[in-house]
Amino acid sequence: MRCPSCKKKQFLTKESRFNTLLFSPILMIVIFIMNVWNFSWVIIIPVSFCLFLIFMLIIPYFYRFTDKEAPFV
C-alpha cells in the first residue's frame, strides 16, 4: 500500500498483522460450536456471513502502518 501524501510504500506493523490474525479463529470457533450444538445450516450460514461482514468492517480499524517492513516472527 502507498501513502497518499508521500507516495512511499507502507507496510502493516507486526502488531497489526497479529491482531488481525486473531479474527479468523473466532469465526471458525463459532461455526464449530454451532455444529456441535446441532444448529441447522439455515442458521449457521447467515450467522457466519454476518460475522464475516462485521469482521471485515472492524478489521481496518486495527491496521497500523509503518514505512519499514518487519518480519512476522
TrEMBL record:
Native organism is Oceanobacillus oncorhynchi
Keyword Transmembrane helix set for record = yes
**Which keywords describe this protein according to UniProt?**
Membrane, Transmembrane, Transmembrane helix
User: Where are the membrane-spanning stretches?
Assistant: 20-37, 43-63
Q: Which named protein is this?
A: Cxxc_20_cxxc protein
